[in-house]
Write a structure and sequence with these properties.
alpha+beta, D-Amino Acid Oxidase, Chain A, domain 2, eight-stranded mixed beta sheet
Length: 406
């Protein structure tokens, strides 16, 4: 059956755009449906947040041919310092210990979005439908039919496969009645930037406190991206404080290791939750990124998990094409789901476990977790496994994450 597209990607944010980049040299006809104009201030790909890209994610973008542009605004993480506020446990990680140029990179969302769009604009097999909103989706044995509102008209499009990359509150997931479990952390992530009084020396700090983790991540010009996890009912107060009051509170929570904080950037808060879905694929449908899972931002794993979805499904689809298979068949798509299940489970368990363990101040657990931080710091084998997990280098890796073409 001839369809309008081989693949319709619902959601043109960072994950959906990354999938377009991964498949841009394929013979597939791609359509990308995105509700928010790409130059709008509300477009997630162009907002003021930052992303911590794991070293494995850098390899994926290199393999896609996008890294050169991303690297222009990427700050390498050469060291990581992990501590438990008010306790003795500390773990220190260094890229040189593991023969890596960096443990990861901090990239502004805006810069990453611009780099991805630059790559996509020279692609001949991708059509952007933006701004456009999905209104309905229907799956039949031969194709998927998607109804959208685009340019003040209602249009009906057909595809061999629909890929949902439309975020944690996925409209595709809701329309297809795919069950999901959402566990609220009753926390909000307050994000902003500050300038440090002492050189950050490309060190990322993850400091666990009694209200949640506080991360300071290195940026250019000795600035730091701040991801401050606060109790949900405290977030409005922190946002409403004057810049001076906010900086004082931040200084109190973090300490003086980076000197005195100045020049506070724009503040925003985002509620945090763990999301699990009952199904990652159906016939002619696959979920990737936050549409398939969302995790706590501790250790910066969320986008990296979604990017590994991208690399995996791109490989599965490319191999299915070579074998002459139907790319929308459940047989092909189950290979993607089966491959991703372990990584999803391990990453969700790791991040959720960190939050549960470090939010409990019972003395036996406090002692155990600080002993654990010391053990990671002192035992090379434990430290190596920890770095491989957080760098996106553990488990079965798709070709793009190994520096290989599709």
């Amino acid at each position: 059956m001839r369809t309008d597209y081989d693949i319709l990607i619902i959601g043109g944010g960072l994950v959906g755009a990354s999938l377009g980049c991964a498949l841009r040299e394929s013979q597939l006809r791609l359509g990308v449906i995105e509700a928010v104009p790409l130059t709008a201030s509300t477009q997630p790909s162009y907002d003021d947040r930052t992303l911590a890209l794991a070293y494995g994610s850098k390899k994926i973008f290199e393999s896609m041919g996008c890294w050169t542009d991303i690297a222009l605004e990427a700050t390498p993480i050469e060291r990581i310092h992990i501590s438990d506020r008010g306790h003795f446990g500390v773990t220190r990680l260094s890229a040189t210990e593991f023969g890596m140029p960096a443990l990861g990179y901090i990239v502004p969302n805006r810069a990453l979005g611009v780099a991805l769009m630059k790559t996509l604009q020279i692609s001949n097999n991708i059509e952007w439908l933006c701004p456009a909103e999905m209104q309905d989706i229907n799956i039949t044995p031969g194709s998927a039919t998607v109804t959208i509102h685009h340019l003040e008209q209602t249009r009906t499009l057909t595809a061999r496969l629909v890929i949902a990359a439309d975020g944690a509150h996925s409209a595709v997931r809701a329309a297809m009645r795919i069950e999901s479990e959402r566990i609220a952390y009753c926390q909000s992530a307050i994000v902003t930037t500050v300038t440090a009084g002492a050189p950050h020396e490309n060190t990322a700090y993850e400091r666990f406190t009694d209200t949640g983790p506080l991360a300071l991540l290195p940026l250019s010009e000795n600035r730091c991206a701040v991801v401050w996890t606060a109790k949900e009912d405290e977030a409005p107060s922190l946002l409403s404080r004057s810049d001076a009051e906010f900086l004082d509170r931040l200084q109190y929570r973090f300490g003086d290791r980076l000197g005195t904080f100045t020049l506070l950037g724009k503040r925003a808060a985002y509620p945090l939750a763990l999301t699990r879905v009952a199904e990652h694929v159906r016939e002619r449908l696959a979920l990737i990124g936050n549409a398939a899972h969302s995790v706590h931002p501790v250790a910066g794993q969320g986008f990296n998990l979604g990017l590994r979805d991208v690399a995996t499904i791109a490989e599965i689809l490319t191999d299915s094409l070579r074998r002459g298979e139907d790319i929308g068949s459940l047989t092909a798509l189950r290979r993607y789901a089966d491959w991703r299940v372990r990584d999803n489970r391990v990453t969700a368990g790791f991040t959720n476990g960190l939050i549960r363990i470090f939010s409990n101040n019972a003395f036996p657990l406090t002692l155990a977790r600080n002993a654990g931080l010391v053990a990671v710091d002192l035992l090379p084998g434990v430290k190596r496994r920890f770095v491989r997990l957080t760098s996106g280098l553990a488990g079965r890796l798709p070709r793009l994450a190994r520096g290989l073409p599709l």
